[in-house]
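Each record in this resource describes a single protein on a pair of labelled lines. With that in mind, the following record should read easily:

===
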Amino acid sequence: MGNCCLGCRSQELAKQIQSTVEEENEINFIQSDILLETAASDIFASLKELNGSKGNESSIDSFDLVLDKGTFDAICLAPEQPTATSPTAAEVAETNSDKTETEKHKRVDLEARKKYLRSVRDLMDAERSVFLITSCNWTEDELVSMFGSYGFDFFGRIKHRSFTFGGVKGSTVSSVAFKLKSL
């Protein structure tokens, strides 16, 4: 596994577990970098290749259900990637000298969020697909607002147990379903 990402390690663990279980149906794992512009086409090409090797030439160009349980949360926590125009470490330190720790770490990678949303859209069929996201970092309203501005319509929710703290009712997780906006 070496210098592999967490997703790669998770996939390796799943393969090891699968190899210990006797099943009639084989599970195949396909890996793609969701932030690449070619993520969806890479996934569909891998599926076509896999199906072809099994004598099934049918083509898949979308999924009926796209699930996310933590990927968007992780992307949202990723720091902004340095660019040629990014401030130097000394400039950042000087700018941040009078800010709280939270304020210092607010420079998140908004471009990565856009890439993620584009890839999710590319995995979906405009008519039938549903995208279901579960987040522990965002409220339902925040998810609806963010995804709505990128061409997703609220479709439904999964209700989770709620609690009240300081007079405000909330939940530790939000699960929201979206469909693509009609053009």
In short: Helices lie at 6-19, 39-53, 71-77, 89-96, 101-104, 110-123, 140-148. The first strand starts at residue 65 and ends at 69.
